[in-house]
Specification:
Length: 288
Amino acid sequence: MQQQEPRDGHVRFGINTLLWSASDAGAGEWVRKAAGLGFDVIEFAVFEPAEVDSAAVNSALDETGLEVTLCTIMTPERDLISDDPGPREIAKRYIRETVLLGEKLGAHAFGGPHYAPVGKLVGRGRTPEEWERAVEGLREVGRFAHDHGICLCLEPLNRFETYFLNIAADAIALVDEIDSEGVAVMLDTFHMNIEEKDPAAAIRACGDRLRHFHACGSDRGTPGRDSIGWEAIIGALEDIDYSHAAVIESFVPGIEEIAAAAAIWRDIEPSADDIAVDGLDFLRGSGL
Ligand code: LER
Ligand code: MN
């Protein structure tokens, strides 16, 4: 299902399946649910690419006209910066298999912290050897992704979730060194709010390297009902003519596995669907 990314100058708004599910099952159902709520994009968090029923998803996509983006699930055994070649190979295999899934679904962006497991902290900063391994590994899988019509969008995470890439400036340096059309930057307002001195300046610094975006509340609740400086963020996205997807990524305590990984210990909003509905309403009204 190779399609061109729709680039009509408009941002398309999406929702990440982690709001509702911690599994690859029932993927077609999330397409219909997202479409019913008015989204343009469904973002699948892919646990095991072989477990996703691509035929069911494609028939739901045909029915609804939704676009797909993918989000990585970096488990402890998927680690491109490990000094052990085993986890590096497992990470590359996972990325390649997910790229092939994405190609079947007509996806163009596969975002997330492809470099290391979420939550991996080792009591020190990154080493030059780890940086080199990331460059080599991502260059290899980036070439593969590009050959299959997909861009790997590297996401800096906050310091409590990774020590490897925390700010846009480092993601830009990594992407520039990899120098592959198959590797770009993505940003997430939740992480930027913790790490960036000036999130709008970080967006502008990325320019056209920014190929994917997570629009998240500062508390991982509803975007727009939080303390993010949305006016400045929206202005910066407009300044760089951002015209890819902006996806809400929020979590609720009821999805226990994800809540534990993202440290969600209370109801931040009344319900998961409130986050989706009110967040989309806010983004649609933002002028993007
Ligand atoms: C994790 O905090 C996150 O933001 C995700 O996009 C990556 O899995
Ligand atoms: Mn994110």
